[in-house]
Every structure is written in C-alpha cells, then in structure tokens.
C-alpha cells in the first residue's frame, strides 16, 4: 500500500522524501476560486482553509470561537468597536515569485478586508467576480472604518452593534492575505497571481492546481501553531473526483486516504471493510429547490405553493438520502437554536396543488426549466435522481419541467447570475448562526445578481425581522425574531425545502486526527498517517 501511495504522489508531482507522508483526499469537485474572499461553496472553502488563517476561528469540530491570528480582542462602544491584537511572529508562505521580508502585521489585515469593502481599492476588481459573501452579509454597510492602530493592532468600527460580526470573521472570506505579496505582484503587473498562486499563513502552502485533477499543497514547516505529537503531513493533495463510486474505488485501492461523501447505498460496504472507517456527523445544512420569484409564473405565490404541495418530499428523502436524510420543513436545520419546531410539515396534496394552479390561471400547467446539481454534495448525494423524482411529481399536476445541468463551475455561475427558473441547491452553515441561513440565503441584500438568495425573494417584513435579530445579542429576542421570519417564509414559499442530512466521510484506518465538523470544514492540520498494520 505504501508503494501505491508513493506512485500516486509521483504522478501528482509530489516526488521526493516527503511523498511517503502525503495524504490524498478525494474531493468532490473543482474550487470556484483559490481566493478565500471569493469562495462561496464548501468545496472551495475547504481548499482555502488549508492555506489561510483568520483573526478568529472555530475550534475544529465545534461552533466555539477561539483566537487565531488575533491572540485577543476587546469589544467596546456598546458592541460597535472591536480592537484586535495580532499574534507576533506569524510567518507567511513563500513561492517562486515571493519571499516575505516580514511577519504578519496590521497592514495584512487591512489589505485583506479593504479590498473586499472598498470599490476603489486596486485589488477590488482583480479576479473578475465581486466579493459576494462579504456583500451578502451586509458588511459593506455595517463597517464604518477599519483602522491600523499600530503594527500589531487593528480596529473595526461598526455603524451599529451586530451579534454576527465576530463569528462572521471566522468564515473563509476572513482569511488573511499578505499585503506585501500583493504589492510585489502589482509592481510586476501580475495582480491576478494573488488568486492563482495564493500566499497565506496556514499549515499548508500552495503547490499547484490543475482543474478536474488536483490541488496540491506542501506542509509549511514555519507554521505558527506547532502541534505536539506525531510529525505533521509533508504533503496534501485534493484529488478532484466528482463521482462518489469512483471516490470509493480509489479509497479502497489506497489511491486516497480520505474520501468525501460516499453514496448512501455504499455505507454498509464501507462499514464492512476492515481497512476503512466510516465517519458520520450532523452538519447544519439544508437542501432545497429554489424558485426564481422574479420570473413568471414563480412570481405568483399560488404557483409556488402549488409546487410545494405537488412534490412528494418524503419519498425523495427515503429514496435518495435513506437513513442519512431528514425531511426539511424550514430553511433552518433542526440543530439550530432558532429552529421553529411549531411549524407543521408541508403537506403533499396533488389535488390542492391542481386547484391552486387553476386559480392562478394555469389549469393546463406550464413549462419550466429545472436545474439539477452535477456533483454529489453533503446536502444532496444525487442531484439527478432528485430532479427526476421532482420532474415526475410536477408532471402529474401539468407542470412540464425540462431538466438542465452544467459542470459545477458553470452551474454555480448560472444560479448566482439568476439564469434558472427552478434550481436544486443547498447550504452548509459557515458559522453556526441562524443568520447564515436566513439572511445570507433569503435576505434582501443577497437578492441581487451574484447574491446567494437564488430565489431573488425580497420580503420587507421578513427582512426587517432578520436584520433586527442581528442588532441584539439577546438570545430570546433573536429566537423570537427568527421564528417570525420562518413563519413569513412559509407564507411566501420561495423554496421547496427538501432535506437535512447526516454527512458521511470515509477514511483508511491509517489516518489519525481527521474529524467531522458541523460547519462542513475538512481540516487536515494535525492529521497524520501511519503505516498499515
């Protein structure tokens, strides 16, 4: 098995003494970007997590905040001012273009956030896409100033108190980049290299990326957080393998040591294999069918309600998700502290759906596109099968759905641009806060081209509740507001909520230290490999 791992490392360009301690992770898809400020999927976030650190972070396997590049912080001015003290001596990576002349300081923090915040920043447009996550969170309006107090301290001043600000900084977009590297690239007229050859402070440094093949990393020997115990990995490879069956085949053959999201039908086979371990964990996630409310006939709430009534969601969960699935009734998963358990399950009633369609002027039904995921995701293991079942259900009430998909990058681009009328998608929470679902996915700020509100639904009453919930840290008040928002969602029904899932990963038993995470992060810091018994 060691010879097989070595041959794979050679094929991926990781030849040399370090190859024997290289871990290969069979990932599910290509990252849309290598720039932490521009990633919006867990696929790409997991690629960037290996290379970057944030001011604050979630302790692995939890939603508990802890210091990272900021060793401490002070909140003042009634929750509107945050002063961060940076950790001393943190080194950046180097590459063929760049060798850092200094350690982390306040300039790097300012650069990392100002480029996302200020439209006139020289790096704001570099890389094409806007910083959608930063915008969807409303940070562009919330932040009043970002100031350098001295080399080791940074101040954020907010227009108003916001209970989500600190956990939001722990998300992928908050990764800290090197201002010195950006200056060097700008001087050589190569600013695009900031994302093509990223430089961070994380446990692994970037070594190469070939779309549809692999992202490669080397261990960073000067990493600021030295772990006790076994030697860390010298190399890491994300082997891009969209097909779940192929991922499992590679895992069994030893071509990868960790594989993402085995198909529900293969879970028993993983459990039965003495060389493999099945890891399971409840993530805060949701799978849904978004209905573009700006496009007729989805702009009619009667049509949206009819579609919700026409789809046998329980049959979909049983057939596609099996024991790993749980029927969704709200945008929030049941594990969220603000989940509204007083709302009943949405009914399955074809006769009522047909009556609503007739009332809306569609007695003979209508035609629509229905976009389905081209890759397996933690919230949806088989997008095509889900789409087939939805298509069949809609046909029974006269809605003729034409199935559409594209490769993962083009699929996402089309959804965020507002191209589809009906589309399958999903979400895994990035910070554990209800705001990360109810605001990012359904708030008015995100209901624009490029925003994560794919239904383009903007309800003023709903939006008022979720924005008010951000302005207080009183849990009871926030819970009341978020539950009112869920009731409003049930009135407007811009989605068909489908499922929440227990997420599975498979690993060879030679892997130690890898853990599941409720936020969908797959972190390889501290993971080690041992020889097979």
Helicity level: 25-40%
Return residue spans where pLDDT drops below 50 for at least 5 consecutive residues: 1-11, 13-19
Distance between the termini: 11 Å
Mind describing the biggest β-sheet? 12 strands, mixed
Number of strands: 20
The gist of it:
The protein has 533 residues and is of the alpha+beta class. The chain has helices spanning 2-11, 42-49, 106-117, 132-136, 139-142, 165-169, 179-187, 193-196, 244-253, 267-272, 301-310, 313-321, 350-359, 383-395, 408-417, 435-438, 460-470, 475-492; strands at residues 22-27, 56-58, 65-67, 70-76, 81-86, 143-150, 153-158, 204-210, 214-219, 235-240, 258-260, 276-282, 285-291, 325-327, 366-371, 399-404, 422-428, 495-508, 511-512, 528-529.
Describe this structure in words.
The protein is of the alpha+beta class and 533 residues long. Helices cover 30% and strands 22% of the residues. It has 18 helices and 20 strands. Strand 4 and strand 5 form a beta hairpin. The longest helix has 18 residues, at 475-492. Residues 1-11 and 13-19 have low confidence and may be disordered.
């Amino acid at each position: 098995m060691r010879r097989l791992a070595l041959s794979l490392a050679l094929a991926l360009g990781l030849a040399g003494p370090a190859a024997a301690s290289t871990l290969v992770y069979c990932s599910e898809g290509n990252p849309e970007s290598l720039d932490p400020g521009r990633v919006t999927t867990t696929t790409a976030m997991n690629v960037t997590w290996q290379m970057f650190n944030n001011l604050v972070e979630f302790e692995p396997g939890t939603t508990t905040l802890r210091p990272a590049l900021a060793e401490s912080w002070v909140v003042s001015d009634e929750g509107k001012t945050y002063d961060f003290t940076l950790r001393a001596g943190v080194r950046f990576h180097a590459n063929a273009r760049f060798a850092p002349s200094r350690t982390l300081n306040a300039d790097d923090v300012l650069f990392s956030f100002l480029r996302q915040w200020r439209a006139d920043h020289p790096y704001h447009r570099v890389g094409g896409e806007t910083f959608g996550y930063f915008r969807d969170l409303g940070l562009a309006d919330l932040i009043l100033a970002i100031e350098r107090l001295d080399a080791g301290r940074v101040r954020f001043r907010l227009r108003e108190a916001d209970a989500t600000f600190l956990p939001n900084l722990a998300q992928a977009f908050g990764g800290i980049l090197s201002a010195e590297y950006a200056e060097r690239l700008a001087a050589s007229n190569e600013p695009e290299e900031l994302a093509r050859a990223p430089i961070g402070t994380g446990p692994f440094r970037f070594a190469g990326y070939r779309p549809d093949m692999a992202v490669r990393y080397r261990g960073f020997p000067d990493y600021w957080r030295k772990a006790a115990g076994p030697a860390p990995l010298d190399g890491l490879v994300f082997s891009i393998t969209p097909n779940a069956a192929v991922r499992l085949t590679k895992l069994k053959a030893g071509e990868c040591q960790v594989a993402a999201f085995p198909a529900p039908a293969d879970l028993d086979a993983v459990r039965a294999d003495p060389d493999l371990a099945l890891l399971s964990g409840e993530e805060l996630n949701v799978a849904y069918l978004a209905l573009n409310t700006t496009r007729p006939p989805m702009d009619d709430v009667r049509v949206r309600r009819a579609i919700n009534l026409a789809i046998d969601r329980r049959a979909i969960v049983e057939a596609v998700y099996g024991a790993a699935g749980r029927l969704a009734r709200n945008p929030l998963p049941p594990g969220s502290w603000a989940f509204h358990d007083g709302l009943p399950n949405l009914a399955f009633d074809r006769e009522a759906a047909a009556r609503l369609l007739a009332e809306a002027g569609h007695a003979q039904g209508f035609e629509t596109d229905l976009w389905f995921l081209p890759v397996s995701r933690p919230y949806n293991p088989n997008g095509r099968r889900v789409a087939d079942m939805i298509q069949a259900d809609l046909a029974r009430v006269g809605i003729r759905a034409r199935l559409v998909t594209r490769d993962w990058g083009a699929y996402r681009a089309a959804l965020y641009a507002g191209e589809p009328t009906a589309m399958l998608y999903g979400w895994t929470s990035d910070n554990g806060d209800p705001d990360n679902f109810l605001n990012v996915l359904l708030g008015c700020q995100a209901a624009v081209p490029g925003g994560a509100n794919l239904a383009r639904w903007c309800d003023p009453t709903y939006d008022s509740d979720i924005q008010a919930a951000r302005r207080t840290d009183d849990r009871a008040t926030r819970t009341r507001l978020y539950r009112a928002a869920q009731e409003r969602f049930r009135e407007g029904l811009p989605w068909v909520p489908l499922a929440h899932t227990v997420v599975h990963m498979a690993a060879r038993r030679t892997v130690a230290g890898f853990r599941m995470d409720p936020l969908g992060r797959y972190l390889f810091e501290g993971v080690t490999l041992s020889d097979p018994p």
